[in-house]
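Supplementary Text 2. Reproducibility record for the structural model of the 442-residue chain.

All settings were left at their defaults, and a single model was retained for analysis rather than an ensemble. We include the record here because the model underlies the residue-level annotations in Supplementary Table 4.
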Amino acid sequence: MAKNTDTLNNEATARHLPEHGPLDENGREVLLSLKNVDITFGKGDNAVKAVKNASFDIYKGETFSLVGESGSGKTTIGRAVIRVNPCAAGEILYKGVRISGNIPRSLDREVIRNIQMVFQDPAASLNERATVDYIVSEGLYNFHLYKDEADRIRKVEEMIKEVGLLPEHLTRYPHEFSGGQRQRIGLARAMIMEPELVVADEPISALDVSIRAQVLNLLKKFQREEGTTYLFIAHDLSIVRFISDRIGVIYKGDIVEIAEAEELFDFPLHPYTRSLISAIPIPDPKLEKHKQLFTYDPSVHDYSEDKPEMVCIGHGHYVYGNKKEIEEYKAIREKNVPLKSITILTEEEEQEAEKARAEKGQDAPMSSGDYILSAPVHDTGSFWYKFAGFFLPLLALLTGFLFRRKNYIRNYKACIKGALLGLGFRAALIVLFLLMLVLAVI
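Retained model, structure tokens:
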């Protein structure tokens, strides 16, 4: 993590960004630093802590990727960096200057100028009523980054060519373009500001596979030529591995592991990281069918007394765990033997796994094909099962138990719930009728 410097001491009162950020112990310039950041949505009993105690540094000129499943807090952190999401605790430093919370207007404008974002959905992030010329030029207008109209046109045309589009596209509207072309427009809008840091929020997830490589090549091109730094948010580790310098893994708001890309894939110490790597699809369908999934179970951690923290175990590798877990992680790393995260089962091993599952339930390893088939496709728990169960409770009870035998658990629960509501309603009517009958006799 970065050392404190004189710049940090003045962060609360700084009105402008310095030319360079602080240096860490290895002499690398720290461009962005998150320190114990909490991000909360809602208030009181309804408050939800989306990000908890997040801390990491991003060095100038590198690509730092943040990966995790949907809802883990990746985009929340990215939006906090561009000052959209406020921090409930902790602070975000840019070049050693605090940019979270209340800051002077002059500093806010510099942050907007230096940090840009490429959004996940290229359709929703562009103004459909504006031409491409205006969309790309908007930052130039707001910060007056051109000498005259001729200079503005020159900059816009050069940038639109850089991203693989043509000057005649400037007079068109976003709906006239494909998804890949829209993402190029969004990239041009961000890069024309000549930012030092770009927050790329899953910029390729909505694109065709053939277009993804082109957009990634554009990002790397700007990095080589302009020295741009990226916070790359993604959930596809197969892509992240080849474009990242360092990777941070986040699970339900907690940063659980940070390391260089190859280090993380060779030594995925945290079990959640191993589960993400094991889920990477294998192009060969035969191998994919016999792949053994590593499923992460949070209950393996006992944090009731020994509280976890992020600890460096050497080799620039940070892992989240309590003292006992950290010692185990260090022992594994000191052996210096790469860990095998993806296992392909032979037919004999699959047969043994099936026998083990029959004896021990679902605790035994399961291939990806078996795991998918274990949950029926049409097990939706539809509202209509509840509706039918309310009017035909006895038939619903019988149907529900048939569903259960076939492992349609959601459908079973829907039938039982509807039947119980129907029976309860009928019982209430009978009780009410009896009460009225007793009152009439009296």
